[in-house]
Amino acid sequence: MTVDPMAISFVIPVFNVADYLDRCMSSVVAQNLPRGTYEVIVVDDGSTDDSLAIAQRWRDAYPEVRVVTQPNRGVSAARNVGLALATGAYIWFVDSDDFISRECVQTLLRHCLESNLDLVTFRGTRLKSGSPDSVTFDANLDLEDVQNGISYIAQYNYNNSSCLYLVRRHYIEGQSLTFKEGRRLEDGMLTLPLVSNAGKVAHYSSVAYAYVDNVETFTSSRSPSHAAKVIEDFRYAIGFFARFIEGQVRYANPSALYLQRVRSRQDSYTFFLCMRLLGFPMALRESLAIYDDLRLLGYLPLVHLNRAEYPGARYRLLTPLVNNRLAFKATASVLWALRPVWRSDPR
């Protein structure tokens, strides 16, 4: 395969991942790409462990590696810095505690270049910490149908994770797409317009990315201030989806199946927000006020949640509870009574 100069930029945000960064970097530089055809932009987001020193060792060993430092501003800001610095024809956002399949990039790039794709999608797999540091990539598959983003979502749906896309740099820049800084759920708010607005999208059905469960997710904290921030970010994301869908209906004339899929995704965010209203340490009247606001804005009841896409028992059992205000209020009241008093004025 002939690879054009600076064919791909890997953007890797780093924050306190000293135990995992070597594995990530090794998987990226082991792609057998000719030197000078790729760059690795590592953005250290104010790490307080040895992550920066590890990244600098890789920079010293590989001229393709560039290390940028900044005060801690969050993963979205780090990715945006890397995106602004990227010069490759395509971009791959790789999280620093994960890794990619060895020798997958040439195949993915070849399909992108031959089919002139705005983006290619591929499969990911989730591994537990301590699992083998490699996943098998099949380089002999055919690319699935090339189509525009709306048709692609209607047929295949899409993945929230920005790590499961190889994206043409000029496309993402032309769309003025960046990650929402200071917000959780940032991937979902980027990938929805990223895929929807693409002119040429295709899927390569092999595993190219490995997520490794190493750290607590942001929803695991029980502090009231953390809970308030998570709830605020869920509400922001739900509103983002609603506005985007409204714009698509007005200007893009999407298919009914496309709208069903993205509305189902919005409903899933609303469902998880309601679960957090039940489980987080907050005043009962506050959680009920947020719930009522969701109903007032038309985000409840959940009427678009696709059971085929969300087949688990919790959706089947808890969606009726979320949709019924009396049942939700009764459940919230019982759970509140069983929790310690978190607020000076709990009711």
UniProtKB/TrEMBL annotation:
Gene Ontology MF, one: glycosyltransferase activity
One Pfam family matching this protein: Glycos_transf_2
Boundaries of every Glycosyltransferase 2-like domain copy: 9-122
UniProt key word Transferase: yes
Record key words, sorted: Glycosyltransferase, Transferase
Protein name listed in UniProt: Unannotated protein
